[in-house]
Structures are given as C-alpha cells and as structure tokens.
Predict the 3D structure of the following.
Amino acid sequence: MSLFLSCLTLNARHARTRSELGHPYELHRTICKAWHDREAARILHRADQDRPGVVTVIVQSLTAPDWSRLDAPPDYLRHIDGPKCIDLEGLKRDQHLRFRLRCRPSKRIGAKDDKELGKRKALGTKDENFAWLHRKAETGGFAIREAAFDRVYWYDSKSGVNDKPLGGVVFDGVLVVTDPEKLRQAVRNGIGTQKAFGFGLLSLAPVR
C-alpha cells in the first residue's frame, strides 16, 4: 500500500495561518485546492507547532497533490517538501514505532432520556481519553507501549465569536504492531471523527 506525504511549512505569524489554526476547517479548504478529485484523494492533515514561529502541516493522501494550485503568498507558505510516495508494506508484527495522533476522542450519546440522543460528545478525563486510544489501537492492528497527550482547542468555522472552544488531544508515544494489515488500513483511513478539522492522521516513525 502506497500513500503520498507532503510537508507544508507555514509562517506562524501570518494572519491567515493564525486564522486557520484557530478554525482548522479553513486550513482543510486551503489544502484541498491541490486536488481535482478530493474524494479519491482521501486527504488527512495535521498542523504541528514544534518550533517557535513555524507551523508544519503534514498532509497524507491516496493520490498526488499539485501544490502549485494553492496560489499562496510567499509570506504565508514558506516551503513545500513533497509529495513523497510512502510504502507501508514494510510494517511487521511486533515492530516498535513512534506515533503521533491528533484526534477528538468522543462517544455517541445513547441515553434515551437525553435530548441530545445520537449526537457525539467529546471525552473529558485522562482515563477516558486513554481508554479510547486503547480501543482504537485494538481494532487498528497495534498496541500502545507508552503514550502521553496534550490538549488542543479550536473553533468550528461556522461558530460565532462568542462560542466556546472545542477540545481535542494530541497523543505522542510508542506503539507495537500486532496486525500489519489492520495498521495499514488505520493509517490509510485515519482514526476517529472530524478528519476535515485536522484530526485522525496517524503518523509513524522509527524508534530512535
């Protein structure tokens, strides 16, 4: 199984970047301009801020993007690395890998007397978040060896200025491959909900 990975380096001080970080669906709309067929591309992305003044956006897709279609100003988009074709066939059972996953752990409300029956509710506690991660790992072909998380906050692009921020988490840690094919599918499809808001991309790297 092959995927395309790109890395966009944005100027964190640019007004457009700040807006897109706070309202990540705007970033999704910007990224999607690089494809003629967004459905076939199955786009996943994640914005990271590991260095001051720099935002790194990791973009994964099933088809190659054409980044020249963005028509972005140079003071907003500093650099593009990729797309690079990544082959996941090398995944092996019992292999240890570092991972990062930005996600919005949630559960569907099932109480019949709840007026929000059927809607999804974000999980709040540390134990709930880690239990969610372990459930996703079990169905996704891997086990968690170690993990930590930071909370992130964002706004729905359709929300008003007085709306409360929505919450998500970024997990970092080490996983063990238990079923290579299931893990390949988890990477391909993403994990969890609201992928257009920058959630679900499971990034893997060698343990160093």
Remarks:
- The two ends are 24 Å apart (CA to CA).
- Residues 126-139 form the longest helix (14 residues).
- The chain has two domains: 2-87, 96-206.
- The longest strand covers residues 142-154.
